Amino acid sequence: MTEIERHAYDVVVIGAGGAGLRAAIEARLQGKKTAIISKSLFGKAHTVMAEGGAAAAMGNANPNDNWMVHFRDTMRGGKFMNSWRMAELHAKEAPERIWELEHWGALFDRTKEGKISQRNFGGHEYPRLAHVGDRTGLELIRTTQQKIVALQQEDHAETGDYESRLKVWAETTVTRLLKDGDRICGAFAYVRETGRFVVFEAPAVVLATGGIGKAFKVTSNSWEYTGDGHSLALLAGATLLNMEFVQFHPTGMVWPPSVKGILVTESVRGDRGVLKNSEGKRFMFDYVPEVFKNQYATTEAEGDRWYDDPDNNKRPPELLPRDEVARAINSEVKAGRGSPHGGVFLTVVDRMPGGAAEIVRRLPSMHHQFKELADVDITKEPMEVGPTCHYVMGGVEVDPDTGAAKVPGLFAAGEVSGGMHGSNRLGGNSLSDLLVFGRRAGLGASEYVDGLPERPAVPEAEVEAAVTEALAPFEREDGENPYAVHAELQQTMNDLVGIIRKEGELQQAIEALGKLRERVANVGVTPVAVGDDGRGYHPGWHLSLDLRNMMLVSEAVAKAALERQESRGGHTRDDYPQMSADWRKVNLVCGLAGDPASPHVELKRQPMVPMREDLLALFETDELKKYLTAEELPAEVAAEPAPAEASAEEDSAEENEEGDR
Amino acid sequence: MSYEAKFKVWRGDDGAGELTDYTVEVNEGEVVLDIIHRLQATQAPDLAVRWNCKAGKCGSCSAEINGMPRLMCMTRMSTFTEDETITVTPIRTFPVIRDLVTDVSFNYEKARQIPSFDPGDVKPGEFRMQQEDVERSQEFRKCIECYLCQNVCHVIRDHEENKPEFAGPRFLMRIAELEMHPADQADRREIAAKDHGLGFCNITKCCTEVCPEHIKITDNALIPMKERVVGRKYDPVVWLGTKLGIVRKGQDTPSA
């Protein structure tokens, strides 16, 4: 029998990004013995990639800002698909969470009065993002990391052991949640360094594992984003909400390969950058939709005049909304007019009156990013760009107040949870989401543990099944190379379930995923040559186990995307370009069904909970009519005739700059 | 534009190991980490390497490339000639776990010994600090904890025996960061010298040279910290002021 370590905790937090660390801090502050399980080293989470800032209506830059304005912006950004209760809690509590960080030592940029500075961002009515230059995510991680150290120091002073109440399990990966009957009783994990197995016995588990980007070929996400939490939740019997909503950014770097997927800020296009195809043509002029015909230039000359004289000229079509630009890039590539590496060209060469010096002055971070990471001098060469998978709005269905999932003892916070951002997340709302709901999930888990009459026990059969599953890739002597299967899964998702979707392609994707499922179940690895049992730091084995998770989330995204016959936020259907008020009322909920040895994703339609009246009253009636059906409108306005269905295109024009940058 | 490059990669665990030769495809625009990943995907699926963001922001993929401590994701292949053999070894100051992965727990232990930020009685939301005052510590908070400065510092790189008494540039900088934090109330000057080995540093600036974030560790953190320690101990005006009760003597904060 394989040797297994066992450790008991009150609360186990899976994930050590912003949400996980904040959840763990809260559980420890509530007196719970807490473990943080992290796939990476402590402090390396993907949260460090966030640049823009954390949205919180502190009113430091504009005193008119308050939670109600923030709430409205969030609901608009999410096209009213948000869990309104989460959006409300988020808007109300974000300022406290930011001030708390400062109390733990964070150093945000300042206003002249010495308060926390707040910057403008797409979709936010007032300057609202607390920030530290362009490394706000790093500040958030470092501050929560250091708060955890501070708590460990308190425990050390009291007990002589830094880890007596709060321990970080670095480079440790959870492969299964364990259940005692219908409730959570722990988690099964392997330690990366040695490959040894660990059973965490715990009545409450908080998922804070982030996103799913690694299921796509082009993504801004890091290797950890393999949908672990989404998949662990499904396998434990919990549900996922609205997985079709995935945020793509139209311009990620596609070349060189070392930086594939990394974002290229929209301000490149705002600063005279133009998109060209392989024939050297500024193709965006061919892609101006009918509804925008009057707002965009029809000739290059007019578009070019706009930068200096916006009052008397129309905008160049490079500045169309995000989906339109992405759709156009997609079409050019599919028509064979893409750049050598599957994108299109974005160039500022010879575009600025001040020449190269002006490019460097106006786009310093982009110049630096391409120079340092890619050895591309954007003053001399074009950039190659294409859509990149950035963020998943869908996630574990949770109770807004406590973060509780549908399985007793399971909680979720941050990107892995669903609902908060609706169909589309505003830039800056992610970092504050992590703090607000990380804390709430930590609190929810602690209260759940307090309310338990007795601790659940870990059934041996659960552990044995988890061991067998984890060791399976070593048993398959003729198994397929996991890297090859992963590459194909990513290609399938990228090509068929990407930024622009169609019924036929989605059906094709589901069929392809069905075949890939068998190959995922048949990947094999051989033990490493050194070490005791050949499982120490074995990346091929790790990928083999991660593949199960990416497979499940891919199925969930593809099936939900096929089901939702409308275009809204992070879900664009070429065959259903309109946003539909009837579809807004529908949440698509994924669960697992079928043979437990090889379960498949099953979809269920679930009605959206109607918004509370006092929240509804924060919006103008005309705006509500764009999103809601006549029956949903407040009684006094329902009698008025409703306008025609709002076009998703028209609507998204308002938030040209949403996303992280 | 692709070619076959010659690589020597250190393979083994904490017991034994050797440089293994590989010939591997290199394409235009790639970095060393891409090549390591290609080795994993095609020739050595069990090659251990630590990495995360691939964008120079997380500080996970530290290694020594042709003897230079660097981030693999920030080392472009175009900086080498096509016939050059590229040697990749784990960072030397820390014990090897396997292949290119080292045990950096030393750093997490040192981090725990430094007394944390102390806000005093100020309540959340009530801090008022000027931009120019926060900027000094903000520079140090750019640190991505790649530990290349720890790796290159000869105090511990060449002298294992100094490890217990020396926190290394990263954590001496952390002390400086807290000491220069406008709202911090603790006094870590005494322990900087006594417990964490500030005196070992003889300002050779190796740490500054390898910092991928271009933090001026020596000039902006270590030297000013040395001055503060010395000023507290030997400045005659401070000494006299303390005796006369004009300068309130700081309460030394012990190591945590």
TrEMBL record, chain A:
InterPro entries: FAD-dep_OxRdtase_2_FAD-bd, FAD/NAD-bd_sf, Fum_R/Succ_DH_flav-like_C_sf, Fum_Rdtase/Succ_DH_flav-like_C, SdhA/FrdA/AprA, Succ_DH/fumarate_Rdtase_cat_sf. It holds the Pfam family Succ_DH_flav_C. Residues 10-431 form the FAD-dependent oxidoreductase 2 FAD-binding domain. Keywords: Flavoprotein, Oxidoreductase. Residues 486-602 form the Fumarate reductase/succinate dehydrogenase flavoprotein-like C-terminal domain. Residues 632-646 have a biased composition (Low complexity). Coiled coil: none annotated. Residues 647-661 have a biased composition (Acidic residues). Transmembrane segments: none annotated. Residues 632-661 are annotated as: Disordered. Gene3D superfamilies: FAD/NAD(P)-binding domain, Fumarate reductase/succinate dehydrogenase flavoprotein-like, C-terminal domain, Succinate dehydrogenase/fumarate reductase flavoprotein, catalytic domain. PANTHER family: SUCCINATE DEHYDROGENASE 2 FLAVOPROTEIN SUBUNIT, SUCCINATE DEHYDROGENASE [UBIQUINONE] FLAVOPROTEIN SUBUNIT, MITOCHONDRIAL. This is Fumarate reductase/succinate dehydrogenase flavoprotein subunit.
UniProtKB/TrEMBL annotation, chain B:
Residues 5-92 form the 2Fe-2S ferredoxin-type domain. The keyword 4Fe-4S applies. Transmembrane segments: none annotated. Pfam families: Fer2_3, Fer4_8. Its cofactor is [3Fe-4S] cluster; [2Fe-2S] cluster; [4Fe-4S] cluster. The keyword 4Fe-4S applies. Keywords: 2Fe-2S, 4Fe-4S, Iron, Iron-sulfur, Metal-binding, Oxidoreductase. Pathway: Carbohydrate metabolism; tricarboxylic acid cycle. InterPro entries: 2Fe-2S_ferredoxin-like_sf, 2Fe-2S_ferredoxin-type, 2Fe2S_fd_BS, 4Fe4S_Fe-S-bd, Beta-grasp_dom_sf, Helical_ferredxn, SDH/FRD_Iron-Sulfur, Succ_DH/fum_Rdtase_Fe-S. It comes from the Bacteria. PANTHER family: SUCCINATE DEHYDROGENASE [UBIQUINONE] IRON-SULFUR SUBUNIT, MITOCHONDRIAL, SUCCINATE DEHYDROGENASE IRON-SULFUR PROTEIN. Belongs to the succinate dehydrogenase/fumarate reductase iron-sulfur protein family. This is Succinate dehydrogenase/fumarate reductase iron-sulfur subunit. It comes from Actinomadura violacea. The lineage of its organism: Bacteria, Bacillati, Actinomycetota, Actinomycetes, Streptosporangiales.
